[in-house]
Amino acid sequence: MKIVIVGTGYVGLVSGACFAETGLSVACVDIDEVKIKKLKEGKIPIYEPGLEQIVLRNIEKGRLTFSTSLKEVIDGSEAVFIAVGTPQDEDGSADLKYVLAVARDIGRYMNHYLVVVTKSTVPIGTSEKVRRAVQEELSKRGVDISFDVASNPEFLKEGNAVEDFLRPDRIVIGTDSEEAQKIMQKLYKPFVLNGHPILFMDIPSAEMTKYAANAMLATKISFMNDIANLCDIVGADVNMVRKGIGSDPRIGDKFIYAGVGYGGSCFPKDVKALIKTAEEHKWSLDILKAVEKVNERQKEVIINKIKKHFNNQLQGKTFAIWGLSFKPHTDDMREAPSLVIIGKLLAEGAQCKVYDPVAMEEAKRKLGDKVIYAKDQYEALIDADAMILVTEWPEFRLPNYNVMERLMRSKVIFDGRNIYDPNEMKELGFSYYSIGRKSVVMDK
Fold it and tell me: Which of 47, 111, 134, 374 could bond 379 through an S-S bridge, CB–CB 3.0 to 4.6 Å?
């Protein structure tokens, strides 16, 4: 059985490699010639734990191939997955130009029945646009070839994407065709042997499910960050509050950790796109608008604490930034809170010395020579007036405080992820600020 996946980003490359792992013949297509050349050489363009091994293994087995031409690989395939980017447009909506360009290419080159699957995160109604785009190209050719469309949204977490694909907690498929359902069920059968379900539904519901899921998770994050800010004001400890409400099974303990706001390629873009979709249908998603507002405000909470500690005098100060990616175990810096924090510090005349375990190359692309790049977390601390923890990488959890004290100009920590214990910080003599917990302020 053969499939084609168009797009070799997080979703496309992970999906292609994991499908190949089950024995399928998978051709991954991308218009980026440099990326395809590197992939053919076994060089992975993104950081994702476990991905390199699975890609190399399936290249060696001949089950996973890469091409810049859909035309060359489409013959003999039973399904083509569209997994290209849907960047945010100026008005907040998802830009579908890449998705529809692929759909048109499918219509130009297909010569037999296919299931055309939207794997990209797309607004409700996109599958019908894809259907029309394919059909228009078939009509131009004057051929009558049947095809079906399906929506198969991904629920992969960056940093755990391979595991999520191989052992999903659910698979959502929207289709209006029995033939397409049979093919999709066959493709995914190896992944549901753990007993978790394939949820078949209509296409609009599948498209909505992806946005609703991300919007709900974003809502939990913003809600908890708002509560954390209130905890700051009234003297409560947000970690205690989190444990108290997280033990309620109706709420659960996931996505209720206070911090500097959500980022990445999904939550910010998808929340905006869902708000825009509602507006196009003359409806206002007031809760999601508040979620977005809280998240933008949250990225400045740590800056406000920094300004207060230094009496608004940041000119000439040096800050060590630990963590640049929007979350651990990825090099993705799209919408990363670190970018906002660094931008605000630089605007105040401060200097930033930065370190991240895997996102340094991505940081250089985004920040250029605006910051100083350290070879490790401790080099970033040399002569720093404070350390700012932005991303909670495991290697930051148990630092050598004696080394920190020797290297830093002043013993000040701003913890944007609440990973350190305020009582321990007090015993060690560090001024310590976190999110939604009592600060430790030592004599300056």
Answer: 374
